[in-house]
């Protein structure tokens, strides 16, 4: 057992699960209530009053509880001091803000504890669906307390895949014939949770996902029997100076190689 799994992170998991629930309750009070919205990243990304209120709740509950931990949140100005911390919280107060603002229910609060570059405790809470996903290093993934595992489907069977239409169109025709494309889910973290609980075999992720979109879901998928990797099959490293990632693949392990092969051919083309 490696050092990360060998350490007991259960207390941290309990802490972030409670914080995610409370932040989710705060966000839910704004859901379908037309909260105030601002635009960031040159008008490409919305942030609402709900995002900010949930972020404040997470910070108030987590930072005093673990003052030695660093902090990285989508809705908090980045502080390079986090790079000097071995362990930190990585949070997205509302993953899937566009869906949230459109009235879709599959948005979630994402909270992870990252240590030495990898998540060791992760929580996704989807309050509108009353779904709580949890995972801890060395443990199992649970959904509302029950252990979940990825789907056991042979590589040659039809795969349920969350992928954009343009990315799917760029893949090999023979491969596409064995793919059932699912309707777009705005929350990347929730899409990865859908792989973890067996509703999907995989999701292909366009470049520019951030640490806060991925860290909790990465561990949730891993402990359920799947993997989130870059196109070379490498696990992701978190808490770097640059928190943006390239194209990624999250999938059940029997399908991972086939997906990565498709993406590699696409990249070479």
Q: Care to describe what's here?
A:
By secondary structure, the protein is of the alpha+beta class. The protein folds into two domains: about 5-145, Fructose-1,6-Bisphosphatase, Chain A, domain 1 (2-Layer Sandwich), CATH 3.30.540.10; about 160-269, 3-Layer(aba) Sandwich (D-Maltodextrin-Binding Protein, domain 2). It has nine helices and 16 strands. It has helices at about 5, 10-30, 50-60, 95-100, 165-170, 175, 190-195, 210-225, 255-269; strands at about 35-40, 45-50, 70-75, 85-95, 110-115, 120-125, 130-135, 140-145, 145, 160, 180, 200-205, 210, 225-230, 245, 250. The strands form four sheets. Strands 3-4-5-6-7-8-9 form a seven-stranded mixed β-sheet, with helices on both faces. A five-stranded mixed β-sheet has the order 11-10-12-16-14, sandwiched between helices. The protein has a two-stranded antiparallel ribbon with strand order 1-2. It is globular and about 55 Å long. The model has no long low-confidence stretch (mean pLDDT about 95).
């Amino acid at each position: 057992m490696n050092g990360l799994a060998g350490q007991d992170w259960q207390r941290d998991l309990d802490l972030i699960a409670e914080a995610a629930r409370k932040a989710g309750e705060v966000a839910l009070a704004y859901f379908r209530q037309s909260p105030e919205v601002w635009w960031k990243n040159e008008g490409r990304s919305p942030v609402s009053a709900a995002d900010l209120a949930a972020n404040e709740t997470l910070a108030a509950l987590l930072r005093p509880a673990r003052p030695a931990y660093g902090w990285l949140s989508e809705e908090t100005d980045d502080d390079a001091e986090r790079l000097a911390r071995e362990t930190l919280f990585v949070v997205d107060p509302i993953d899937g803000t566009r869906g949230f603002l459109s009235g879709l229910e599959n948005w979630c609060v994402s909270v992870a504890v990252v240590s030495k570059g990898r998540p060791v405790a992760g929580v996704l809470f989807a309050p509108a669906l009353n779904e709580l996903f949890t995972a801890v290093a060395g443990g199992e993934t649970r959904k509302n307390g029950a252990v979940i595992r990825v789907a056991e489907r042979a590589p040659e069977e039809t795969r349920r895949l969350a992928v954009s239409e343009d990315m799917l169109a760029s893949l090999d025709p023979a491969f596409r014939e064995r793919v059932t494309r699912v309707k777009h889910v705005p929350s990347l973290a929730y899409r990865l949770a859908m792989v973890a609980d067996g509703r999907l075999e995989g999701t292909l992720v366009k470049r520019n996902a951030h640490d806060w979109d991925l860290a909790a879901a990465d561990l949730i998928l891993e402990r359920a029997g799947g993997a989130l990797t870059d196109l070379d099959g490498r696990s992701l490293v978190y808490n770097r100076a640059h928190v943006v990632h390239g194209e990624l693949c999250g999938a059940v392990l029997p399908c991972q190689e086939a997906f990565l092969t498709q993406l590699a051919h696409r990249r070479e083309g």
